[in-house]
Write a structure and sequence with these properties.
By secondary structure, this protein is mostly helical. It is 61% helix and 0% strand.
Length: 352
């Protein structure tokens, strides 16, 4: 240990002498007045160098003497309405309407926007407009929670969008359902909505009544990503093998299918069609089974297989409907469909 200390000390001396020697070489010759003995006299080297060395290379186990109060890990920006609710009349009114402020906090752009609004000036007239459409208090809370930027929309533009729907023969009841089930609808211009409705009518050869029926049944579908819907349409037609007529029937019956994840949708279909041997014409009649997760269908189907109850042909005895296979809780399925018990079903799941 002593030898290591001495070696370290000798190294520092050597480095110090080299620095000193380099400094001398940089001076003019007439200023080099130190004798060789002075240059080599190591006693002139202060021990302060050793102290400095230790301080700059301190151990991680030593107590920190520096002020590091300004050092902190990076945190994503966050915002909490709680500090403002007691002082903000606007926030208090929104809470009374049922707006879930904690959900609005998840979008960093929303809190600064909401806080600069005055309820009477910026919000009240929009609330009255929505109430005239038939929305109740709970509807208003849900709408604002999902679409807080509705107050950015000009009231005249909002009225134009409602007039457009009436022009397209949507009655008041239809319009109310559209706004209730798709809070983002009123944030789309009439041009955008017209293009989207036109896309569905042309792509699936829909009549006017079918367009209205589809819109009211699944308002979110109309404003969904067109590219996503095109991709799902391709999967249904080309990869699953349904005809254009069957694809249209699936759309009108269960439009939710067209907003699902493509890989999950195809995985469910392949199990139903290839493993369970369910023909396409049967799936078309009950397309809602495609909205069920593959692993859930697999678990229930294999349990029925164990009980020798996999009979899905309605023309034969001991028929089990596909709807009952995917509906209800596990307890309902085990007792009412499989004719067994939830304990037996759970034990089977553990054995899988």
């Amino acid at each position: 240990m002593i030898r290591n200390v001495l070696n370290t000390y000798s190294l520092r001396v050597y480095l110090k002498l080299r620095q000193f020697s380099s400094a001398q070489k940089s001076l003019p010759e007439n200023q080099l007045t130190l004798s060789s003995s002075e240059v080599l006299d190591t006693r002139s080297i202060s021990n302060e160098d050793d102290v400095h060395y230790r301080s700059t290379e301190s151990s991680v186990l030593e107590k920190c003497q520096e002020d590091i109060s300004d050092v902190a890990p990076y945190l994503r920006p966050s915002f909490n309405f709680a500090a403002y609710v007691n002082k903000s009349n606007t926030l208090q009114k929104l809470v009374e309407l049922g707006v879930e402020l904690y959900k609005l906090e998840k979008n960093a752009e929303v809190p600064p926007y909401i806080l600069q609004l005055d309820f009477d000036r910026d919000i009240k007239n929009h609330i009255m407009f929505l109430c005239e459409l038939g929305l109740q208090t709970e509807d208003l809370g849900k709408l604002i929670t999902k679409n807080p930027f509705i107050f950015k929309e000009d009231l005249d533009n909002l009225q134009v969008r409602i007039n457009y729907l009436k022009f397209k023969k949507f009655n008041d009841e239809m319009i109310l359902r559209i706004v209730q089930h798709n809070p983002m609808w009123l944030s789309f211009s009439t041009q955008d909505i017209d293009k989207k409705l036109g896309f569905f009518q042309k792509t699936f050869s829909l009549t006017g009544n079918e367009v209205r029926s589809l819109t009211v049944k699944r308002p979110r579908l109309i404003t969904y990503s067109i590219e996503h819907i095109k991709l799902n349409t391709f999967v249904i037609k080309e990869e699953m093998g349904f005809t254009p007529e069957e694809t249209k029937e699936i759309l009108l019956h269960t439009p939710k299918i067209f907003t699902q994840n493509q890989h999950s949708l195809l995985k469910t279909f392949e199990y139903i069609h290839k493993e369970m041997k369910i023909p396409l014409e049967t799936i078309v009649k009950v397309p809602q089974i495609l909205t069920c997760r593959e692993f859930r269908i697999r678990q229930r189907h294999q349990f029925l297989e164990k009980l020798k109850k996999t009979q899905f042909d309605p023309k034969k005895p001991n028929y089990t409907s596909l709807i009952s296979l995917v509906s209800g809780s596990d307890a309902d399925f085990a007792t009412e469909v499989a004719g067994s018990s939830i304990h037996a079903f759970n034990a089977f799941l553990k054995s899988m």
